[in-house]
């Protein structure tokens, strides 16, 4: 992974990285708060040998350097701990005392430091001083040859243990910095891991690799889309409106020779935005001056006419069984140039109906009467209806949802279409984050007129900010 890919991952997983970083920061601060303060006291000893001339002094110095390392180990021995416990009459075991003690030799010197850490500053000082005195005595015993009175090596206290006035631990700054660093590392690591494990569609390359189809549009995520699903209710230069204009234009160039008169719009799975895309694409094409028929061909869970507030009591199924003609079943949408054909009563055998000759005849009749026929079909993977419908159409537009549809699901959906020799004209990535998320695309460049002073929706107010040169990217 190069730097550019890492930055892309961090942008996509920014919230996760920040959360784990803050969690690490909180853990460091929490550890500081709950930790019991401890105090450190240090005593230092100087190790030397007896010498009478310069040559002996040099040799003695080298000997002392080698010996002082042994005394550091001796300081951690049980023998020293037992003597200290006896001398101070401590209510601690030798093992508990040893756990409080550390011994360290200053590099390239013969100075041995003994440090004791304890919750009681007075006891910390007392144990450190007792350790230094015990080591001084023990070294004299060990380094005095039998029958002699002068030791070969002497350990002398040069720095008595002092009374600590402030805790040595916890260290708030260190704990917080360590927590911050660990949280950040954890956040970045988890972000990279999740990105590697995430097989959802997040880039044009993901779609092209899985579907072998061009990208015809990117629909921006808009929190107002649920309350205001129709682009006809938005300002002329709102981001979603512009995105559908781009899709409309790209479709016109998708097949210049034959044209796309009958277009099936579907998706791999439910809740990926196929119906909303079909409805708003139909509105956009109609606003471009064409006669459009939107066919609600999802005979299992129809939803397109709900967005227009129209009744689906008569529709596709009514025409297919011969109850009414196409003209009698078509309704006005309220958008100039756009007509609606609802699903009609929900049938018990949707797949059989959509693959019937009557369905093919309905689409051919619609082709003759309208410039464009947009078919809102069911999702591809759960049922076979969309693949069957696509065989009657000039092309199929596949909708995928950013961050939800997986590459495997998209590939499986395209395979369903290939089995019926249907043509995939392209794909649309839906609900693309308008900031970051790997795209960073901007929608709405503020080139239209300002919105009037009437009460405006959130979407309209955002579009107004865009038209003034600020707000959304």
Report the structural category: alpha/beta
Quickly count the domains. 3
Indicate the CATH class of the largest domain: Alpha Beta
Considering DSSP H and I runs of 4 or more, what fraction of the residues is helical? 40-55%
Name the overall outline.
Answer: rod-shaped
CATH topology of the largest domain: Rossmann fold
The H-and-E topology, N to C, reads as: HHEHHHEEHEHHEHEHEHHHEEHHEHEHEH
CATH superfamily of the largest domain: P-loop containing nucleotide triphosphate hydrolases
Largest sheet: 8 strands, mixed
Total E-strand runs = 12
Structure description:
Helices cover 47% and strands 16% of the residues. It is of the alpha/beta class. It has 3 domains: 3-35 and 171-197, no CATH class; 39-159, EIF_2_alpha (Alpha-Beta Plaits), CATH 3.30.70.1130; 204-467, 3-Layer(aba) Sandwich (Rossmann fold). The strands form 2 sheets. It has an 8-stranded mixed β-sheet, with helices on both faces. A hairpin with a 5-residue loop joins strand 2 (101-105) and strand 3 (111-118). Helix 2 (14-34) packs antiparallel against helix 7 and helix 9 crosses helix 10 (274-287). The radius of gyration is 40 Å and the shape is rod-shaped. It starts with a helix and ends in a 6-residue tail after the last helix. Residues 52-58 and 436-473 have low confidence and may be disordered.
Task: List its traits.
8-stranded mixed sheet; Alpha-Beta Plaits; 4-stranded antiparallel sheet; 18 helices; Rossmann fold; alpha/beta; disordered C terminus
């Amino acid at each position: 992974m190069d730097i550019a890919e890492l930055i892309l991952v961090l942008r996509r997983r920014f919230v996760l990285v920040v959360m784990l970083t803050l969690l690490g920061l909180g853990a460091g601060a929490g550890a500081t708060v709950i930790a019991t303060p401890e105090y450190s006291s240090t005593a230092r000893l100087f190790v030397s040998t007896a010498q009478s001339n310069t040559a002996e002094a040099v040799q003695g110095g080298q000997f002392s350097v080698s010996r002082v390392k042994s005394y550091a180990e001796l300081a951690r021995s049980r023998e020293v701990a037992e003597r200290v416990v006896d001398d101070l009459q401590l209510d601690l075991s030798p093992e508990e005392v040893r756990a409080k003690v550390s011994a360290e030799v200053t590099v390239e010197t013969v100075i041995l430091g003994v440090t004791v850490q304890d919750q009681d500053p007075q006891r910390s000082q007392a144990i450190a001083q007792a350790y230094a005195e015990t080591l001084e005595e023990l070294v004299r015993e060990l380094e005095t040859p039998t029958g002699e009175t002068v030791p070969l090596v002497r350990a002398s206290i040069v720095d008595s243990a002092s009374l600590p006035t402030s805790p040595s631990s916890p260290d708030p700054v260190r704990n917080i910095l360590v927590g911050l660093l660990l949280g950040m590392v954890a956040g970045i690591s988890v972000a990279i891991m999740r990105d590697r494990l995430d097989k959802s569609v997040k880039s044009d390359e993901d779609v092209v690799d899985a579907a072998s189809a061009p990208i015809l549009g990117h629909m921006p995520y808009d929190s107002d889309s649920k309350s205001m699903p129709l682009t006809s209710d938005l300002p002329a230069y709102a981001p979603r409106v512009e995105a559908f204009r781009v899709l409309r234009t790209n479709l016109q160039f998708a097949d210049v020779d034959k044209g796309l008169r009958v277009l099936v719009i579907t998706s791999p799975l439910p809740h990926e935005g196929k119906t909303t895309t079909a409805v708003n694409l139909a509105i956009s094409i109609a606003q471009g001056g064409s006669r459009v028929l939107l066919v609600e061909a999802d005979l299992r869970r129809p939803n397109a006419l709900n967005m227009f507030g129209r009744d689906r009591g008569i529709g596709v199924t009514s025409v297919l069984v011969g109850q009414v003609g196409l003209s009698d079943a078509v309704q006005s949408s309220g958008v100039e140039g756009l007509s609606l054909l609802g699903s009609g009563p929900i049938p018990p055998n949707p797949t059989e109906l959509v693959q019937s000759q009557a369905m093919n005849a309905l689409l051919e009749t619609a082709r003759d009467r309208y410039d464009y026929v947009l078919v809102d079909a069911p999702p591809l993977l759960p049922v076979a209806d969309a693949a069957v419908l696509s065989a009657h159409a000039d092309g199929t537009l596949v909708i995928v949802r950013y961050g939800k549809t997986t590459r495997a699901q998209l590939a499986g959906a395209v395979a369903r279409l290939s089995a019926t020799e249907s043509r995939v004209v392209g794909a649309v990535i839906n609900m693309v984050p308008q900031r970051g998320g790997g795209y960073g695309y901007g929608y709405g460049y503020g080139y239209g007129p300002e919105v009037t002073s009437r009460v405006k929706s959130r979407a309209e107010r955002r579009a107004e900010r865009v038209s003034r040169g600020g707000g959304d990217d």
